[in-house]
Specification:
The protein has helices at 4-7, 16-30, 39-55, 58-65, 103-114, 147-152, 225-230, 289-296, 308-311; strands at residues 139-145, 154-159, 165-170, 179-182, 198-204, 210-213, 216-224, 232-238, 241-247, 256-259, 275-282. With 312 residues, it is of the alpha+beta class. α2 runs antiparallel to α3 (39-55).
């Protein structure tokens, strides 16, 4: 991922509020639902979603601003690999760095601990070394997953630093920061030992329309003034496709409706949550002289002050 601030059109160190507003604006502009079959818009949406996910983590944002990590979340310096950069005179064991007085002391310790594997470790052909088996190291990765893939489940591809790829099965109802274990997908073992495991931490990207709370999904749906006043049948999106929804007559902004069992399937109980829809009344965009004339001559039967509670 490139610089997350640049992806959102912001300057380095932008505030949380600036980041939130920039993402909301760009997400509405490039959402795939508005640009079907447009690969560039889809790629742009993924970039801004990844940037927002990166920067909304306060600790990660702080470390990036301080130059401690790069845009992928990797350390900009890796002291843990100091041995890889040791000079020629330091080949073999690094006894002094490991708390031993000399390489001979270190080899003797390893010989006692592992049945004589110490000698010649620098060359990889030490005495007794051939008979030793050891498991490979575990490795950890992060994988960005779209909101819908996490909700519905699916298979994603993880690109590894060495150019290889891993197929990762995303369980239905996966949660943000959930960690998956891929057995045997870590570093190779030593002397015929088993490979280590790969641990994949999922980072769920936000969606421009859906949001999740526990196993329930929430969605704000705009309706026209006519649909709200007279009632109507409208199409609304769900996690699995569009369905027909009845807008009750006399609905208002904030009217809440429920679509049963249209939420997330609970991984433990198997019970699905619900889809809660909040209506938002939207006035016509263009001039409507008939509507204007009607309202000018209309006197409500009941006086109403929608701002009464705010002013009390």
């Amino acid at each position: 991922m490139k610089n997350p601030y640049e992806a959102l059109g912001l300057k380095q160190g932008a505030s949380d509020q600036e980041i939130k507003l920039a993402f909301k604006k760009l997400a509405k502009k490039y959402h795939p639902d508005l640009h079907p079959d447009d690969k560039q818009a889809e790629a742009k949406f993924k970039d801004i979603s990844a940037a927002h996910e990166f920067l909304k983590d306060k600790d990660r944002k702080r470390r990036f601003d301080a130059g401690e990590i790069d845009a992928s979340g990797a350390e900009t310096y890796q002291q843990q690999y100091y041995r890889d950069h040791a000079g020629p005179q330091s080949s073999g064991f690094h006894a002094g760095q490991d708390g031993f007085a000399s390489n001979e002391d270190l080899e003797e310790f390893l010989a006692r601990a592992f049945g004589g594997m110490g000698g010649g470790m620098g060359s990889g052909r030490g005495r007794g070394q051939a008979g030793m088996k050891a498991p490979g190291q575990d490795v950890s990765y992060t994988l960005r997953v779209s909101f819908l893939d996490a909700a519905r489940g699916g298979v994603n591809t993880l690109q590894l630093p060495d150019g290889k790829t891993l197929k990762v099965t995303i369980p239905e109802g996966a949660e943000d920061r959930q960690t998956l274990r891929l057995k045997g997908q870590g570093m190779p073992g030593y002397g015929g030992g088993p490979a280590g495991d790969a641990y994949i931490e999922l980072h769920i990207e936000p969606d421009a329309h859906f949001s999740r709370k526990d196993d329930n999904i929430h969605l704000e749906v705009p309706v026209t003034l006519k649909e709200a006043v007279l009632g109507a049948k409208i199409e609304v999106p769900t996690l699995t496709g569009h369905v027909s929804l009845t807008v009750p007559k006399g609905s208002n902004t904030g009217t809440k409706l429920r679509l049963k069992d249209r939420g997330i399937k609970n991984r433990k109980t198997g019970v699905r949550g619900h889809l809660y829809i909040s209506l938002k009344v939207v006035l016509p965009e263009g001039d409507e002289p008939e509507l204007t004339a009607f309202l000018e001559g209309w006197t409500p039967r009941q006086a109403q002050n929608p701002r009464k509670e705010m002013l009390s």
